[in-house]
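Progress note, sequence design subtask.
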């Protein structure tokens, strides 16, 4: 990953956006990383991976609950507790 300062990113925004199509760009301010610019394709891959990891976890929890005799309704209770 390439690092640039916020000042440099402001001055070279067009170039930074072009570079981000090839690899993520970390933007720092006062020696602290504050943001990452990445291509839309990379963002969508990252997001899809997070969604898939969540679905895998959900399925694992549901399978473990079923194996232990916990009904789906009981798993949903914490999600609906605020609605009462």
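Output:
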């Amino acid at each position: 990953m390439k690092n640039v300062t916020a000042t440099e990113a402001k001055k070279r925004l067009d170039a930074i956006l072009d570079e981000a199509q090839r690899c993520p760009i970390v933007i720092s301010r006062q020696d602290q990383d504050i943001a990452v610019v990445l291509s839309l394709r990379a963002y969508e891959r990252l997001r899809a991976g997070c969604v898939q990891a969540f679905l895998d976890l959900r399925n694992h929890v549901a399978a473990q609950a079923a194996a232990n005799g916990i009904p789906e309704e009981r798993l949903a209770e914490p999600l609906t507790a605020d609605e009462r």
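The two ends are 48 Å apart (CA to CA). Work on this subtask will continue into the next period as scheduled.
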